[in-house]
Amino acid sequence: MDIKELEQMPEMHELVKLFATIWGRPDEPPIDSSTLQALSHSGNYVVAAYSGKRMVGGLIGWLGGHPPNDLHLHSHILGVLPDTEARGVGFGLKQHQRTWCMDRGVTSIEWTFDPLVRRNAYFNLVKLGADAVEYLVDFYGPMDDGINTGAESDRLLIRWNLHAEKAAAAAAGRPLEPRPDASALLVQVPEDIVAMRRDDPTHARRWRHQVREALGGAMSRGYHVTGFTRAFEYVLSRD
Q1: What percent of the chain has pLDDT over 90?
Q2: Residue 125 burial (CB < 10 Å; 0-12/13-18/19+)?
Q3: What is the pLDDT of residues 137-190, one digit of tens each?
Q4: pTM
Q5: Which residue from 7, 98, 132, 198 puts its CA 20 to 30 A from 162's CA?
Q6: Nearest Cα to 233, choosing from 181, 194, 178, 196?
Q7: CA 194, CA 26: separation in Å to the nearest integer?
Q8: What does the longest C-alpha to C-alpha distance in the chain come to?
Q9: Cα 212 from Cα 231, distance rounded (Å)
Q10: What domains appear along the chain, each with residue ranges and CATH number?
């Protein structure tokens, strides 16, 4: 796999088509080519992964921050073709992004993800060693694409502290698995929420509201997400 920073408009068009395919929105991709070109030209992060000459994944982000916090990279879109997910393309892209930031003195990356998607929870919290710092209710409003199918868009805000011990261990292929103790709270999510939204949207909405109440409620009471288990459970504890 090769990973390349994109600079030319034909590359931007190709990345837009890739994202449109992944999100199932051929007529309404999640971002347009001119925005990608502007992001790249202004020194932000626009990258694609290739298997041979075939583009198989992409990752984009831009620099941001809220005073008095330090500058960080907002990582906005990560997409990988389904037939290449098991090959580590997503992990390779995120590690490239980590190195890109560290080379520029940027010490953290933030992004959001759907807390009901178990594979993304495990990827973000365990495989990458990032932290969930805030529960955001219906962050984008209803999203009508091939993945979200009109569901409410609750999100977890992730902060990846790039020099943290668990981030370094994850980068070296030694992710730190959570070990819940007796005082930990566990919040379970479904095995495949994407299929559930398609086959039983009423049940999927119940899961959304139950996890919002349990996970979002616990975080609002001062609990911190400390990991995600292979049994599809968020692990939460208090200081």
Answers
A1: 81
A2: buried
A3: 999 987 766 565 667 999 999 999 999 999 999 999 999 887 777 689 999 999
A4: 0.92
A5: 7
A6: 178
A7: 19
A8: 55
A9: 19
A10: 2-177 (3.40.630.30)
